[in-house]
Write a structure and sequence with these properties.
By secondary structure, the protein is an alpha+beta fold. The chain is 19% helix and 50% strand. It is globular, with a radius of gyration of 21 Å.
Length: 172
């Protein structure tokens, strides 16, 4: 009986080590959130667009050994806004560092294909100066094709909801 328990313990230990090595070598299955993040990562580079006559420049870069995607948006003025995208389990998280000084953190549902759109909803916000201050409440990313991106942002200001659409084209 002692040999049987020892053999069972050795087998469990061996399976644990094999599982850990498998995860480290990347043979673990890709989740929907990881696949959506990979699609978001395909945005790396420079984009441009116009909204209400104001030109926007957008750039995407990877950070954190490929675990975070940084979006830097520069409207017609020199003030930049940053949005950081990460994978968190079955979801994507986007934290937006807004020019108005607040930081909405938005979470997707279990994401699908970026070509069909990935929607993020407000989970929490920091940096609000007053309860009625302007703040983003959500966004939807849709990759029309490899060179065209649409972002639909929703916001709240003094209790009134609104939205803005941005259409970007990849710079060649």
């Amino acid at each position: 009986m002692k040999n049987g328990l020892r053999d069972l313990a050795a087998a469990v230990a061996l399976l644990s080590v094999a599982g850990a090595l498998s995860a480290q070598t990347g043979s673990a299955p890709v989740t929907k959130s990881q696949a959506a993040f990979k699609q978001l990562s395909s945005l790396i580079g420079d984009w441009e667009g116009v909204e209400d006559g104001v030109p926007f420049r957008v750039s995407y870069t990877l950070s954190g050994a490929g675990t975070a995607l940084m979006e830097e948006v520069r409207p017609g003025d020199p003030k930049a806004m940053i949005t950081m995208f990460i994978v968190d389990g079955d979801h994507l998280v986007a934290t937006h560092y807004c020019v108005v000084g607040n930081q909405p953190q938005m979470v997707s549902g279990v994401p699908d294909d970026l070509h069909r759109g990935v929607t993020f909803s407000l989970a929490r916000i920091t940096g609000m100066k007053t309860p009625g201050a302007w703040h983003n409440t959500g966004m939807t990313f849709t990759l029309e094709d490899n060179d065209h991106l649409t972002q639909h942002w929703t916001y709240l200001y003094k209790g009134q909801a609104g939205s803005t659409d941005f259409h970007y084209t990849r710079k060649k």
